[in-house]
Design a protein that fits this description.
82 residues; 1 helix; elongated
């Protein structure tokens, strides 16, 4: 088991994991961080057309071992022919 830390940032607030969780390996932490990031994105997207969500996995030394980012960039378009 490896103790890893999952951190999240939605551009307005940051959640830094101070306790860590024991995972079988870094791939298991990657799976978990992607699952949580998708849940955060699902809740955040309806609130804004411009959103960047990031997540990182750190090891016990504080080194980032994995990171992921979800970017939403939406905007209205004017039709060429009314």
């Amino acid at each position: 088991m490896t103790k890893l830390y999952l951190d999240f940032d939605d551009g307005r607030s940051q959640l830094r994991d101070e306790d860590g969780i024991d995972y079988p390996d870094e791939k298991a932490a990657r799976t978990e961080v992607l699952k949580v990031l998708s849940e955060i994105a699902k809740d955040a997207v309806p609130k804004s057309d411009q959103q960047v969500l990031t997540a990182t996995v750190r090891n016990a030394s504080g080194d980032t071992v994995y990171s992921a980012k979800v970017t939403v960039s939406g905007g209205w378009h004017k039709p060429r022919h009314p």
